[in-house]
UniProtKB/TrEMBL annotation:
Keywords: Membrane, Transmembrane, Transmembrane helix. Gene3D superfamilies: Phosphatidic acid phosphatase type 2/haloperoxidase. The keyword Iron does not apply. Pfam families: PAP2. CDD domains: PAP2_like_2. Residues 86-203 form the Phosphatidic acid phosphatase type 2/haloperoxidase domain. The lineage of its organism: Bacteria, Bacillati, Bacillota, Bacilli, Lactobacillales. It comes from Catellicoccus marimammalium M35/04/3. This is Phosphatidic acid phosphatase type 2/haloperoxidase domain-containing protein. The chain crosses the membrane at residues 7-27, 66-84, 91-112, 132-153, 160-182, 188-206. It comes from the Bacteria.
Length: 221
């Protein structure tokens, strides 16, 4: 990765983490802020038209971000990466899954302790609301997979199809959390900014390590 591109990724990651810190501070200490309530109220516009078909669709999507399905997908991805001897990608993927869904979600939720929305709830949740754990899991899991595909897959058409597929899943999961009444919009923004921050900051490191690993592999041949 060129130095200029690396700086772009790191700048983007820093901006995302600043957004996360800002939202965490406001939600924790100023939850009644007028602009925050307006933002969350605007997000609830996704619930203006609720139909059985939409509910079933979003319930299916939100399950793709559940702990059980994320765990299964993680095991499959790691097995494939190890099978194809992509050690660096496997290590980066493992790091993202530990930092995001495991450490990030559980610790931050306990620190902020924001109650769930009190409006229409189409799914039952028992944990705290901020940040959205499904959002963090989706971006850390499917977003990391998307970037690994971008690096390792050489076929452009296959790369484009798989990238669009995982991007659709991520966006769908984010929207589902609001539609189903599981989260405020600010919860989703908090989860997205946290996971995107880590993703953007660590992606250049992965690219550098992957380049060195591939170069050494070619020299051995």
């Amino acid at each position: 990765m060129k130095e200029k591109n690396r700086l772009y990724w790191q700048f983007a990651g820093s901006c995302f983490l600043l957004i996360f810190v800002f939202f965490t501070y406001v939600v924790k200490f100023y939850p009644q802020s007028q602009w925050l309530q307006r933002l969350d109220l605007w997000g609830q516009s996704l619930q203006q038209i609720i139909t059985p078909q939409k509910t079933a669709f979003f319930q299916y999507l939100t399950q793709l971000g559940s702990g059980q399905n994320i765990f299964i997908f993680t095991i499959i991805v790691l097995c494939l990466l190890i099978l194809f001897r992509q050690k660096i990608a496997a290590l980066w993927f493992s790091f993202m899954m530990i930092m995001g869904p495991i450490l990030g979600t559980s610790i931050i939720k306990q620190v902020v302790q924001r109650p769930r929305p009190q409006g229409i709830q189409l799914v039952h949740e028992t944990t705290f609301s901020f940040p959205s754990g499904h959002t963090i899991a989706a971006i850390c899991c499917y977003g990391t997979t998307l970037l690994i595909i971008h690096v390792l897959v050489k076929n452009r058409l296959l790369k484009a199809i798989m990238s669009l597929f995982f991007a659709f899943i991520i966006i769908g999961i984010l929207m589902s959390r609001i539609y189903l009444g599981a989260h405020f919009l600010s919860d989703v923004i908090g989860g997205a900014s946290f996971s995107l921050g880590i993703l953007c900051l660590t992606y250049p490191i992965y690219r550098q390590k992957q380049f060195i690993y591939d170069f050494k592999g070619k020299r051995r041949k």
